[in-house]
Amino acid sequence: MNALKNRVQLIGNLGNNPEVITLESGKKLAKFAIATNETYKNAQGEKVTDTQWHNVVAWNKTAEIIEKYLEKGKEVMIEGKLTSRSFDDKEGNKRYITEVVCSELLMLGSK
């Protein structure tokens, strides 16, 4: 059961081209956002689509695959864990961000 405590699975489309960074240590880091859509009918019976954006980061071999094959609009399934961190922006304000750290990636849709 421990493996289920912090596990996220999402299917969505990339909202931008991945940003891939090679660190001084030689490790690669890929950052991108995916959009997931949920469709439902509201009280008036109208179809409503709710889009949620998710920040995703991937490391090393997964980041290399992302750099080579993914671009804006591609459909992917990712699995990973949720992490939260904080940082200080340029004005010195503390900012918080929640990200999915991708451990598994499946490319969907056409080539």
Automatic annotation (TrEMBL):
Gene Ontology CC terms, in alphabetical order: nucleoid
A GO biological process held by the record: DNA replication
Annotated GO MF terms: single-stranded DNA binding
Record's keyword terms, sorted: DNA-binding
Source domain of life: Bacteria
NCBIfam families per record: ssb
Record-linked PANTHER family: SINGLE-STRANDED DNA-BINDING PROTEIN, SINGLE-STRANDED DNA-BINDING PROTEIN, MITOCHONDRIAL
HAMAP family: SSB
Subunit architecture: Homotetramer.
Name the UniProt record assigns to this protein: Single-stranded DNA-binding protein
Species of provenance: Tenacibaculum caenipelagi
Lineage: Bacteria, Pseudomonadati, Bacteroidota, Flavobacteriia, Flavobacteriales
